[in-house]
Specification:
The chain has about 375 residues and is an alpha/beta fold. It is about 25% helix and about 20% strand. This is Agmatine deiminase.
């Protein structure tokens, strides 16, 4: 069911990711021109992510018709597996942005208290600059998920991916100029017009624009979910490096300058928690050789720096599901930083998350939370 008007006009807003969830949605990787070795290593890690999250909340994994049986065989019975066509498995970006509203009366049926924004999707940059040339199936994922859940849909023609925004649930949104102001997204809209849409569809009052995303995150043009996220209102976590010679350093420093010189929607100064990036990590010759080149997908080249970040975690009900990249020092340090930042959550590290970053993202990128209603 499509709703006319904006979510705010209907009393909806996007809650923070630490608000209670009814479930988590995850896609199932398969395309051999993005995932090495016919996606077998990536599927193994996706399954581990799904299993980790399912300890704390229900999980639905969507797989294509040809992969349904394979996905079902790799996942425990408590995880629902639904058949769904897709071009690739980045449900943070192709899935709906769920919005909720408070019930005005006890008689209001649950399905009316949750809805979804169906943003336009163009494969992170369109025919000339996107990650793959065909994305017709991904454009339908949000609509299909909302249909499965019988949730109202707010269609929106602006091109926007879920990984490009973070909200605190109290009126503040984080994003990056590198992504949302990129000419390959919405060249006819200026910053003010984009802000107006974010306010109308997310229920936010203030948008904080960081200049750039993570170094090397060329696939998404600098999504904020690799760079910075909310820990709680007034507190953010920022990807950081102490190495002033690292290409990441000026990006993190510029973001820190913005965050320390602005306030959130309630006038609070930000507390910034720094979390070191791993590595740097690079795609090996062997890893690149496992990807089957095609005319449809952006090539995966050896020695490319991987956009690896511990900020790219998933907040489940009572848990933080975070990537572990095989950098022993930084992996351990990240668990410690996250444990201190989220004292009421159990921090669960997923080994082998390097396989996800080889495809262009990480745990936050492959998941989409559905708030409880």
């Amino acid at each position: 069911m499509n709703l006319q008007g904006t979510p705010v006009e209907h009393g909806y807003y996007m809650p923070a990711e630490w608000a209670p969830h009814s479930q988590c949605w995850i896609g199932w990787p398969e395309r051999p021109d993005n995932w090495r070795d016919n996606a077998v290593p990536a599927q193994r890690v996706f399954a581990e992510v799904a299993k980790a999250i399912s300890r704390f909340e229900p999980v639905t994994v969507c797989a294509s018709a040809s992969q349904w049986d394979n996905a079902r065989s790799q996942l425990p019975d408590n995880i629902r597996v639904v058949e769904m066509s897709m071009n690739d498995s980045w449900f943070r970006d192709s899935g709906p942005t769920f919005v909720v509203k408070k019930r005005e009366s006890s008689a209001e049926i649950p399905s009316q208290s949750i809805a979804g924004v169906d943003w336009e999707f163009n494969s992170w940059g369109g025919i000339d600059d996107g990650c793959y040339e065909h994305w017709d199936l991904d454009r339908l994922i949000a609509r299909k998920i909302l249909g499965v859940e019988r949730a109202p849909r707010f269609p929106q023609s602006i091109i926007l991916e879920g990984g490009s925004i973070h909200v605190d649930g109290e009126g503040t949104c984080l994003t990056t100029e590198e992504c949302l102001l990129n000419k390959n997204r919405n060249p006819d809209l200026n910053k003010g017009q984009i802000e107006d849409i974010l306010k109308a569809y997310l229920g936010v009052k203030k948008v904080i624009w960081l200049p750039l995303g993570l170094y090397g995150d060329d696939d998404t043009n600098g999504h904020v979910d690799n760079m910075c996220c909310f820990v709680r209102p007034g507190v953010v976590m920022l990807s950081w490096t102490d190495n002033e010679h690292d290409e990441q350093y000026p990006r993190s420093k510029e973001a820190l300058d913005v965050l320390t010189n602005c306030t959130d929607a309630h006038g609070r100064k930000f507390e910034v928690i720094k979390i070191q990036v791993p590595g740097p990590l690079y795609m090996t010759e062997e890893e690149a050789a496992g990807v089957v080149p095609s005319d449809d997908a952006k090539p995966r080249l050896p020695n490319t720096r991987l956009a690896a970040s511990y900020v790219n975690f998933y907040i489940a009900n009572g848990a933080i599901i975070t990537p572990q990249f095989g950098d022993e020092k930084r992996d351990k340090e990240a668990i410690q930083v996250l444990s201190a930042a989220f004292p009421d959550h159990k921090v669960v590290g997923v080994q082998g998350a390097r396989e996800i970053v080889l495809g262009g993202g990480n745990i936050h990128c492959i998941t989409q939370q559905q708030p409880a209603h």
